[in-house]
Amino acid sequence: MVDFLVLGAGIAGLRAAMTLAEHGRVLVVTKEARWESNTHYAQGGIAVAMGGASDVASHLQDTLDAGDGLVDRAAAEILVREGPERVDELLKWGTHFDRNGETLLRTREGAHSVARILHANGDATGAEIGRALAAVAQSEKNIEFAEWMTACALLMDDQRVVGAELRDAEGRSQHVLSRATLLATGGAGQVFSETTNPAVATGDGLLLALRAGAVLVDMEMYQFHPTALSIPGVPRFLLSEALRGEGAHLVNAAGKRFMERVHPLMELAPRDIVARAMVKESFADGAKQPGKIFLDMRSVRGIQLTERFPGISRFLAEHRLRLDRDRIPVSPAAHYMMGGVKTDLCGRTNVAGLFAAGEVAATGVHGANRLASNSLLEGLVFGARAAKAMAIDSEQLPIPKTREDASSSQQWMAVSNVEANERLEAAIHALRGMMWRCAGLLRDAERMHEGREALKKISEEVCSIQNSASTSRVATEARARIEVSRALLECAIARCESRGAHYRNDFPQKNSTLERIHTHYRADGTVKLECFDAFAEVHRDEENDSKSSIQRMTAGAACGSVS
């Protein structure tokens, strides 16, 4: 029994744990080592408006514009308003952002009107923030970590989440009771064959939430990063948007730029626009096979590229490539989930005792297309807010009833049934390829219905294996990927328009009647198109507070800043 259970040790989970430790015992559970999360691989930086009221207002407008008519304004206002305070905390906790003397260095990324992106160690911002947060968390006597543990199910008591069933790497199972549980499990890029996400990003938290009765929203809104390294046989390594922020161009196989024909911001247009332009350019002149697209930094001057981008430079060097000498082959890859478990502005889901924050959650803050480098800020801001709500709500709920310990020594099927495991891996491989073909960057009804039928067969195959391998981590991840894929397909089929990251060849225009209308997916497979106001009664006061605060700030009140 602990007071608070946090599933995930990325930026949202760690930031929440820091606040929760002030109110009781916290257990932070990670599927692998505590640093293995999407946060660790975040390169470019963290967007934050630290230049006063006009900067906050500008950051808000950029977020709204990038979100293409689907951003929940109250959520975005909270993000930009509370961001500076959260980043101040990071500085106090020892996060080493890059500086010139005492001045924090800032860069610009896609769809930002000004340079407001803080970065660390050149291109390792997420790793540095994670290091600093983990160091502070490990010093807290009320925080304990459980590594290499997979959450198989949430424990329920009278429609309230009261903990989770966990399994370790040897297959031993245990029930951990808690007064409140936070999902901070990250995204689900591993449902696609082409992704920048690490292997742990399989959507486990989404399946847990659905089975507990939570609602998923905007699952069709999956962001595809334009520039992942594209070399056959090499993982899709992320090439940060900061490269384009520092002057990199995108060129076709003939060495010609093309983004100037597409958008006034050219290479710094919103990610969805850049990614689609790259695909269309690769099929220019009626080509049946895609031509290559390259990232070109050879004309950039005044920057020591190996110092500004050390991690990227080291990885490219392994493949005999250099930013200052070579055109780098790139292609889009699945990168970030804008939808997720529906929450209010304090991380509450529609299920008592269950909270969500970070990429797994959907507050509406990103809308149809996340503004570059808003993800780390989201984890900080809404991780802290969820923790406060968990502490308050848990005081009003009874302590979970003690139940018989469910510990067992049953081994993972990865050890005891190699054949079943191989069949599951084959099914996952087929699913990922299907999702990239049928629900990737460019969609249409024919391909998505083809994907829906293929998913049924894959699901049947996985179900046929479950009796012998239902306890394995591979089986748990397979079920999660199937449910996430189903949700994404059904929501994408239901949204008959093109908006932000969701582009349909058969409906290439926006439908004005769908602005501010969100897809809501439930465990029975149904999708409803509704406004994002189901929790209005929960966060109406927060929304009013946020609006009045932004109005005061934009009227001239100064906000805190850090040099």
Can you walk me through this structure?
This protein has 563 residues and is α+β, with helices and mostly antiparallel strands. Among the domains are: 110 residues, Flavocytochrome C3, Chain A, domain 1 (Alpha-Beta Complex); 117 residues, Fumarate reductase/succinate dehydrogenase flavoprotein-like, C-terminal domain (Methane Monooxygenase Hydroxylase, Chain G, domain 1, Up-down Bundle), CATH 1.20.58.100. The chain is 38% helix and 17% strand. It has 16 helices and 21 strands. Strand 10 and strand 11 form a beta hairpin. The protein is globular. The C terminus is likely disordered.
Produce the secondary structure layout.
Blueprint: E1 2-7, H1 11-20, E2 26-29, H2 38-41, E3 46-47, H3 53-66, H4 73-92, E4 99-100, E5 103-104, E6 106-107, E7 117-118, H5 125-138, E8 143-146, E9 149-156, E10 161-168, E11 173-183, H6 204-212, E12 216-217, E13 222-229, H7 242-245, E14 249-251, H8 271-282, E15 293-296, H9 305-308, H10 310-317, E16 328-337, E17 340-342, E18 354-356, E19 361-362, H11 374-395, H12 413-416, H13 418-439, H14 445-469, H15 473-494, E20 517-521, E21 527-531, H16 536-554
Parallel strand pairs: 1-2, 1-11, 2-8, 11-18, 17-19
Antiparallel strand pairs: 3-7, 4-5, 6-7, 9-10, 10-11, 12-17, 12-20, 13-16, 14-15, 15-16, 20-21
Give a brief rundown of this model:
With 563 residues, this protein is α+β, with helices and mostly antiparallel strands. It is 38% helix and 17% strand.
Pick out its properties.
disordered C terminus; globular; alpha+beta; Flavocytochrome C3, Chain A, domain 1; five-stranded mixed sheet; seven-stranded mixed sheet; Methane Monooxygenase Hydroxylase, Chain G, domain 1; 563 residues
